[in-house]
Amino acid sequence: MASTAARRVLKDNGAIWVMAPTTIFFRVGTIMQDLGFWMLNDVIWRKTNPMPNFRGRRFTNAHETLIWGGEIARAEELHLQLRGDEAAQ
Question: Are the beta carbons of 67 and 21 closer than 8 angstroms?
């Protein structure tokens, strides 16, 4: 499976970016969490020239969603850094 191969080759402090359509976005996120990745954030890529919807039965798909994931230990470290920054202010 491609997801276990990505897990195997990713460095300890590495990050993974996955583009997933909205129909399976949550399923991909669950699989990534099961493999030990933490969802650091999601990014919306707005398309400036999306494919037209000729039949008019759906909304035009004018964006793509990316999942930014990393190691759980790295995510906890980033979270502690952010908390430390907020506490200093």
Answer: no
